[in-house]
Predict the structure.
Amino acid sequence: MNAMTQVPNTTTAPDPQQIDTYDARDLIKDGVQASIVLDGQVYYLRITRAGKLILTK
């Protein structure tokens, strides 16, 4: 007899109500760029003139 293992469906986006959500303009405040630290590495989040987000290291 084979037991079936349920594999999570990774093709659908997570429910927005189940994840933390932040407004990029709140993170950046009155400027156009904010720094974000992950495991000691600094990343920069920037809003372009076209209203797009760019994350760089």
Notes: The mean pLDDT is 85. The two ends are 51 Å apart (CA to CA). The longest helix spans residues 24-28. Residues 14 and 20 are 11 Å apart (CA to CA).
